[in-house]
Design a protein that fits this description.
- About 35% of the residues lie in helices and about 10% in strands.
- It is built from 17 helices and 14 strands.
- Helix 15 packs antiparallel against helix 16.
- The protein is globular, with a radius of gyration of 21 Å.
- The protein starts with a helix and ends in a 17-residue tail after the last helix.
- The N terminus and C terminus are likely disordered.
- Bound molecules: zinc ion.
């Protein structure tokens, strides 16, 4: 594990350099067009507040039902957050990861020397409070990669965001934040931790299988799957391609490996609807098929209709095939099982999403592009929501229920069955 000041200084220096160099375009801040670096503006201008595209977001949609179900917490551990950044993100010797770190932090407007953790949360709060009252963000913790015996492997982990940090933020801002635990199922205390997290108000559990060394089809997960089902706490798990360091475990992200959890009665949310990459078709010939096709197969199996959902975070990224978006928009029979999430800070990373390209592909009105691009400079969380509310294919958009996700995370009778916390809050 490397958490050196040297690395942080180098990182901030690089960030400053890119900020200076990356603001391309004409002089004058009102005309400058940004396409690489997030200018991190605050206080939306009147033009945006009056935009018809923003007004349309809330037509038929109650803000109090809008919970963004996929929001990453991040930082560098320069506060008492307990965040730990892995070696690959801390060393210029890993230039690709180093650059990714810079883009994440710029996307989140958190490149503040000595106060990255704090700036990250402040920017999130700034964005959500600029949205109508009732809108909330579900903040993700992120557990360490563990070995097959359930021992943490900090040196193989990209980052670590403690459950307690996410929980405490949700407790400090209950009107705007909810929290999502991350618990490695191989840990000897995994079920205890899950019960504790549920008792402390966690709304879901997040896994990133390849990066964390979690095979959802392994019998090692059985007790955890059973506990998820008993507690009715949903599992949000990444499927499809994953930019992780561990390439030997990439097949863990295969959607078909989630049947064990579903058979155990757990509620499962496939992150990004598995919208990128390929996986082996282990039902048939083990030949590679698009992960999205395997997601679709699972969604169409009648036995999982109650418990299987997809989150639509990241589906608008440039690296997704337009056909994925067209299918998700057209499959009206799936809409009650799609849940909106932003995968923040990705919507703040300008090169990743192109409203103009979506418009050129017939998925977005040309007239919405300028307002959406401007909104992104102020509020990427709002931008992500407004963009997805505006998408349509052959006259079919995502209905309000895709964004009214709160109902899924607050099932009417579930919480009363959770036992009181056996331990006091630490
Ligand atoms: Zn994510």
């Amino acid at each position: 594990m490397i958490r050196t000041r040297f690395s942080r200084r180098r990182f901030l220096k690089t960030a400053a350099l890119l900020t200076t160099a990356g603001a391309f375009g004409a002089a004058g801040c009102h005309t400058r067009k940004y396409f690489l670096v997030n200018p991190c503006r605050a206080a939306m201008p009147a033009r945006l507040a009056e935009s018809p595209w923003l007004a349309r977001v809330w037509q038929g949609l109650d803000p109090a039902q809008v919970w963004d179900c996929h929001v990453h917490l991040a930082g560098v551990g320069d506060s008492d957050s307990g965040i730990v950044l892995g070696a690959q993100f801390s060393s210029p010797m890993n230039p690709l990861f180093y650059a990714r770190r810079w883009f994440y932090m710029n996307g989140a407007c958190a490149s503040v020397a000595g106060a990255v953790d704090k700036a990250y949360v402040e920017r999130l709060l700034e964005q959500v409070t600029a949205m109508p009252g009732g809108v909330k963000l579900m903040l993700f913790a992120f557990d360490y990669c563990h070995d097959d015996a359930g021992r943490p492997l900090p040196e193989e982990s990209a980052f670590y965001i403690p459950d307690d940090y996410a929980r405490d933020l949700a407790a400090a801002y209950p009107e705007r934040f909810e929290w999502v635990a991350s618990i490695h199922p191989y840990r000897p205390d995994a079920v205890d931790r899950l019960e504790r997290a549920a008792a402390q108000g966690a709304r879901a559990v997040k896994w990133l299988p390849a990066a964390q060394n979690i095979d959802p089809a392994s019998s090692r997960c059985a007790a955890f799957h059973a506990a998820l089902a008993r507690l009715r706490i949903p599992l949000i798990t990444h499927c499809g391609a994953e930019k992780a360091m561990r390439t030997e475990t990439l097949y863990y992200s295969n959607p078909l490996r989630l049947r064990r959890a579903l058979e155990a009665g757990a509620r499962v949310i496939i992150a990004h609807c598995a919208s990128a990459g390929d996986d082996a078709d282990i039902d048939r010939d083990s030949k590679p098929r698009s992960s999205f096709e395997l997601f679709a197969r699972l969604m169409d199996e009648p036995e999982w209709r109650e418990n299987l959902c997809g989150d639509i975070s990241a589906i608008v990224l440039r690296n997704r095939k337009p056909q994925v978006l067209k299918t998700l928009l057209s499959r009206r029979d799936w809409h009650s099982r799609l849940l909106n999430g932003s995968d923040y800070p990705l919507p703040g990373i300008l090169p990743l999403i192109s409203p103009a390209a979506l418009a050129a592909g017939g998925l977005l009105p040309e007239t919405a592009v300028a307002d959406l691009e401007l909104l992104r400079e102020y509020n990427p969380v709002y931008f992500d929501l407004a963009l997805k509310r505006t998408l349509s294919w052959q006259g079919q958009g995502f209905p309000a229920e895709v964004f009214a996700t709160r109902r899924f995370f607050t099932p009417p009778s579930a919480w009363s069955r959770i036992p009181a916390s056996p331990r006091p809050l630490s």
